[in-house]
Amino acid sequence: MLDTAINKVIDQVNGNAPWALVEAFSTMPRWKPEDVEASAHDIARRLEALGVPVELLEAQLYLSIPYEASVEAEGTTFASKPPAYSLSCPEGLTGLLAHVPGTLSATVSSFYDKNRDEAAAAEERIRGKIVLTDGFASPNKVLEFQDKGAIGVIGINPGVDRHWGICSSVWGTPDLDGLPRKPRIPVAVVNNEDGAKLVALAQRGGSATIRTKLEEGWFKSLVPVVNVPGVSEPDKFVLLHGHYDSWDVGVGDNATGDAALLEIARVLWANRESLRRSVRIAWWPGHSTGRYAGSAWFADAFAIDLDENCIAQVNCDSPGCRWADVYENVAWMSETEAFCQTVIRDVTGMGSHGERPLRAGDYSFNNIGLSSFFMLSSTMTVEKRKEMNYYTVGGCGGNIAWHTENDLMEIADRDILIRDIKVYLAAVMAVANAPVLPFDWRATSAEFEATLAKYVKAAGADAALLEPVSAALAELKAALSRFYAGIEAGSVTEAKANAAIQKLARILVPLNYTRGPRFTHDPALPIPGLPQLSVATELSAHGDATKGFARTQLMRGANRVVAALREATRTVSA
């Protein structure tokens, strides 16, 4: 249950300041650099008017600003949009069409999967052609088609709208290692009706011309940051954040999130004497046009401070949207699940259902190793989506106005926004004030156990390669049981417990969510649990020519996992 002090603070939430920001942003497009900068100053002005000190940090971000696109075929020009980071090709590119059928994701959890026909995506079918692909022009599909020799991609969006997006798998501003993954082909999206006409043309062996216009380069970008200092442990902090750039005016994605951060900053600043640890609140640019470039820059620029002092990161995206009656598919890491469910229930009286966080949504801190929860907020029910005949989208509470010019004031709901603000505020305060950080790594070890069982089954005759992992995981589970029993009994001090819980995040979050080293950024591609072991699911597909290489990869991955699990065991046993 939330304590009396937190309940007293969340009762101070009201809709005046946040709703005024939503109304203002509903008239302010926020994807062109000059407009993004103006909105950052607007956020700062509103904070200052509320008496909240704010710092405007300046970042240099590498962004891709999409302007216009078209697809022309047989004398007809189809309206289109170019995803950010696709190749600018205003002079046009013409080629034969090849259709790669696909299915739409039923839930947000599979939204970034490829969802395309394997046989139709064969290299011999698409090399030298413009690929038509059903659904969204997601980075994993664009990367695959480009690598197989496609000269362009046309995404067929599922409804009457054309959705803005980004087709690069590079997370944030590219470094030298990431540059080769930057798209080298033009990409455009059309709506479903026009896409059906193009599919019919492809079946007749027809061709089309793609024209795109984008501006790519370095841009000065402002990052508003509020630091609400804690009284007892001011160096330790919770990071609460969301993006303020949007496609067009982006009311549900993410003006409502910006408004939530504004109100939380106001309330926390007025009650800062009640905070044990600090809360840092940040608004990101470059989310839409730089694949989370703002949060990635912050992770880079303040990496050591985050490593040493950040106890959790909380993402705020698309709260307060119409018809958002349930908390389903809420992102949280396993160690935070019980805590999140308790907060949501205590604030709203509602149950909740969570999922493994996607490689999306400004989760730019996995490689550092931060326990994380929330991304999208409340959403509409499955029944409501069916009633409205809505397909799955990546925000806006499930409203298909997501990433379109229709994401207007009607998408926001003032009462739902206030409810969601209270959830975020209560969660952040509860972490900041907890005597012992409320994260249960026994839940994470249970997740590891389930993941490992899947890999052992898939490995078949090679399952022996995973036996050292099973042994190390059993040792960790036993150590965690003793550790939490010690906390309950009082034999483990609060200081020792918190240091260990934070250290476990630095070890186990990268192990579960990343392939690359710490202080880098993995690509924006789906990552399975314990990814160093995921090659186990591919062993049966390897013949004599490659089986030995796959087994070697699994052995090396197992070594990394065992070493991390043993380090975690030592951490809680010291």
UniProtKB/TrEMBL annotation:
<dbReference type="Pfam" id="PF04389">
    <property type="entry name" value="Peptidase_M28"/>
</dbReference>
<dbReference type="GO" id="GO:0046872">
    <property type="term" value="F:metal ion binding"/>
</dbReference>
<keyword id="KW-0333">Golgi apparatus</keyword>
<dbReference type="InterPro" id="IPR039866">
    <property type="entry name" value="CPQ"/>
</dbReference>
<dbReference type="GO" id="GO:0004180">
    <property type="term" value="F:carboxypeptidase activity"/>
</dbReference>
<keyword id="KW-0964">Secreted</keyword>
<keyword id="KW-0645">Protease</keyword>
<keyword id="KW-0479">Metal-binding</keyword>
<keyword id="KW-0865">Zymogen</keyword>
<keyword id="KW-0482">Metalloprotease</keyword>
<feature type="domain" description="Peptidase M28">
    <location>
        <begin position="227"/>
        <end position="414"/>
    </location>
</feature>
<keyword id="KW-0732">Signal</keyword>
<comment type="subunit">
    <text>Homodimer. The monomeric form is inactive while the homodimer is active.</text>
</comment>
<keyword id="KW-0458">Lysosome</keyword>
<dbReference type="GO" id="GO:0006508">
    <property type="term" value="P:proteolysis"/>
</dbReference>
<dbReference type="GO" id="GO:0005764">
    <property type="term" value="C:lysosome"/>
</dbReference>
<dbReference type="InterPro" id="IPR007484">
    <property type="entry name" value="Peptidase_M28"/>
</dbReference>
<dbReference type="GO" id="GO:0005576">
    <property type="term" value="C:extracellular region"/>
</dbReference>
<keyword id="KW-0862">Zinc</keyword>
<keyword id="KW-0325">Glycoprotein</keyword>
<keyword id="KW-0256">Endoplasmic reticulum</keyword>
<protein>
    <recommendedName>
        <fullName>Carboxypeptidase Q</fullName>
    </recommendedName>
</protein>
<keyword id="KW-0121">Carboxypeptidase</keyword>
<dbReference type="GO" id="GO:0070573">
    <property type="term" value="F:metallodipeptidase activity"/>
</dbReference>
<keyword id="KW-0378">Hydrolase</keyword>
